[in-house]
Write a structure and sequence with these properties.
Length: 685
């Protein structure tokens, strides 16, 4: 060719031009190769990943092959603005080709939207993957915000990472997200496919998450493909439907407080999966006012929604500045619009409202009772009925010269409230009344005596008996000093057992009490026996079992757990009990669990919740969230080096072996206050 060029000078310019163009092509190719491009495992997805322009934002969608059909899938929040005005978003392939699609269904709680493809497309659709494992390498393909306006390979980006938690479709409607470690994930990746090494879809990216204020966010949540396929097939019920009430079992809410400053404490809610101990949603900020964290009371109202009653303190300088507020958190973790700004149950500012206690009314709402103090020397108990969104239905005064109410669920529309009343000759007793919602009013039943003389400390506890009544455990004085007794009440407040009360521990000073129904008409009780005003190594727990007829089933001294404090109980579903508690030295506590059978036999050796964790972790305040099939769900506070966070662990019900620990969000410096479940959850998968 060189000879030819020499022979034909007129062609030299053309050859030089071709060489220059070739050089530019090579340089440009090298520059493009240096930019982040979809790798080999993701390159097959280029024809199946779409750019989404949805009025106020952009995102990603992809084509999914399932059941022999082609579906277009994206995140609901990407297209939510379009759905609100009845418009279809604009979908474009990386090649720039527009794709027409029509909405089939969208679920805001699942955060998935599915469309029917109306245009011919080149891609045959991505295939769903098998369930991933922890540590599996993944790729998220999409159009992140910095490149969203540049289609083609310049706009399409694949970021690599790994699976931190594989997630699951917990039940027919409750989803545990896939947790991904994805450095480089950015806005605009939402709705994109998360692919395994073979290019199959394991989930749909929906959210970035971080527990700190840092912008270096690696954690990404994805809806697992199993849940997406259920939704594509139309088998997943919508949030708020009757089906969700049955499928929410196996999860438990955590209510806690984040300290943002010395004066501000934010109230948050999370829902924990009983299968893995990981959050199903949250944290959801319920209140960003100054709250009193020790009196946050969550109530499930039967459809997966949660009502949270809590004290709000409006100013440290004022004397009458504490009110009871309520928020509704839907089963998908969203605040109900009706109570998003808060609902104060009483409007007057000339009193202090405190110590709320609440229970579901069995009809989709709840009844909350609380103490109202008009002065330091005068207090009364009031009750308010609310609907499922926390809106006030009715209010009633329960008792004068009374305080510290305890509420348990009774028959549909009725609850039983036990409260401390002042005795005419001094001292305190316990009384009970029924509260019934009837024709928009709250009807208060007749007062019944529960115990003539009780100690103010420790606070009595109540546990529903599963038949509309309740067990009441309280401390009182006896001939031998202090004692602890239990009494069973029917749904109307009348005593069930012949004897006035069954004495469980005579001559013992109690610091705290816990109780749970055994599921067979009896009750299991834990008593923290103290030797002084402060926690000491000699403190211990006494566990006792009382049968349905009021007979003590363990021996008179019960079962002792030495060097143990702060009990929390859950029935094991077989008539026995699981006990969580602080063990060891009060200066360096550790959390532990123990299981006893219905006849008092130790089913497995003491299980330490600190086992397998870092040796410097200080595990405090363990609380049992419930028993789900063969798993025990426990939450405790990790108070290491001045920081506090809530950690959950799953303990095998048969062996007592503790599984991996899951951190559920940072709370400073107060631990999350978990909700105590008085019955084993059923129906969890």
């Amino acid at each position: 060719m060189i000879a030819f060029v020499r022979l034909v000078p007129s062609l030299r310019v053309a050859v030089r031009f071709v060489a220059t163009v070739a050089s530019l092509v090579l340089v440009t190719g090298a520059m493009l190769a240096a930019q982040p491009q979809p790798d080999a495992g993701s390159r097959a997805a280029v024809d199946n990943v779409l750019f989404v322009d949805a009025l106020t934002g952009t995102g990603t969608a992809f084509l999914l092959r399932h059941g022999g059909e082609l579906h277009l899938v994206t995140a609901d929040h990407v297209v939510r603005d379009c759905l609100a005005v009845g418009r279809e978003p604009r979908f474009e392939l990386a090649s720039g080709a527009a794709v027409r699609a029509q909405l089939v269904r969208a679920n805001e709680s699942l955060d998935v939207a599915v469309y029917r493809v109306l245009s011919p497309v080149r891609g045959g659709g991505l295939l769903p993957a098998e369930h991933p494992d922890i540590g599996d390498e993944v790729r998220l393909v999409g159009f992140p915000a910095p490149f969203a306006g540049r289609l083609g390979t310049a706009g399409l980006r694949a970021v690599r990472g790994c699976v931190a938690n594989p997630g699951a479709l917990v039940t027919g409607a409750v989803v545990e997200h896939v947790d991904l470690d994805l450095p480089g994930c950015d806005h605009g990746h939402s709705g994109g496919p998360v692919l395994d090494a073979a290019g199959r879809v394991i989930g749909v990216a929906v959210q970035r998450r971080s527990s700190t204020a840092s912008e270096d966010v690696h954690a990404t949540l994805a809806v697992p493909i199993a849940a997406v396929l259920e939704f594509v097939d139309g088998r997943m019920p919508q949030v708020g439907s009757a089906a969700l009430a049955a499928t929410i079992a196996g999860t438990a809410p955590l209510v806690g407080v984040v300290d943002c400053s010395p004066t501000d404490r934010d109230l948050v809610v999370q829902r924990i999966c009983g299968r893995s101990g990981r959050p199903v949603y949250g944290p959801v900020f319920v209140s960003q006012a100054t709250t009193i964290e020790s009196h946050a009371v969550p109530v499930e109202v039967g459809n997966g929604d949660l009502l949270v009653f809590f004290e709000v303190e409006y100013g440290a300088a004022a004397r009458f500045d504490v009110d009871i507020d309520v928020r509704c958190v839907h089963a998908n973790g969203q605040l109900a619009a009706e109570t998003a700004d808060g609902t104060a149950l009483l409007a007057s500012s000339q009193h202090i409202e405190r110590a709320p206690s609440a229970a579901a009314d069995g009809r989709g709402g709840a009844i909350v009772a609380f103490e109202v103090a008009e002065s330091e020397a005068s207090a009364a108990v009031f009750a308010i009925a609310v609907d499922g969104l926390g809106r006030r239905v009715a209010v009633a005064e329960v008792a004068r010269a009374a305080a510290r109410p305890l509420v348990v669920a009774g028959e549909p529309g009725t609850v039983l409230v036990v409260y401390r009343r002042e005795l005419p000759r001094g001292g305190h007793g316990l009384a009970a009344r029924t509260l019934e919602v009837r024709a928009g009013s709250l009807v208060v039943g007749s007062e019944r005596e529960v115990a003539p003389a009780v100690r103010v400390t420790p606070q009595p506890v109540v546990a529903g008996d599963g038949a509309g009544g309740a067990f009441v455990v309280f401390a009182c004085d006896s001939a031998h000093g202090g004692s602890v007794a239990v009494r069973r009440l029917a749904s109307g407040g009348a005593p069930v057992w012949r004897r006035a009360a069954q004495v469980l521990a005579d001559g013992s000073a109690a610091r705290s009490l816990a109780a749970v129904a055994d599921g067979a008409g009896g009750v299991l009780v834990a008593i923290e026996v103290c030797t002084g005003s402060a926690p000491a190594p000699e403190d211990h727990l006494t566990i006792q079992h009382v049968g349905g007829a009021g007979d003590v089933l363990f021996d008179r001294d019960g079962r002792t757990i030495h060097a143990a404090r702060q009990p929390s109980l859950a029935a094991d579903g077989a008539g026995g009990v699981v006990v969580a508690f602080e063990a060891g030295s009060p200066a360096r506590p550790r959390a532990a669990v123990q299981r006893f059978s219905a006849d008092g036999r130790r089913v497995w050796a003491l299980s330490s919740l600190s086992e397998g964790l870092a040796p410097w972790i200080v595990a405090e305040h363990p609380t049992l969230l419930g028993v789900v099939r063969d798993r025990v769900v426990v939450a405790f506070e990790d108070a290491t080096m001045g920081r506090a966070s809530t950690v959950t662990r799953i303990v095998d019900l048969g062996t007592g072996q503790a599984g991996g620990a899951q951190e559920c969000g940072v709370v400073l410096p107060n631990a999350i206050v978990p909700m105590r479940l008085d019955r084993p959850d059923a129906g969890a998968q």
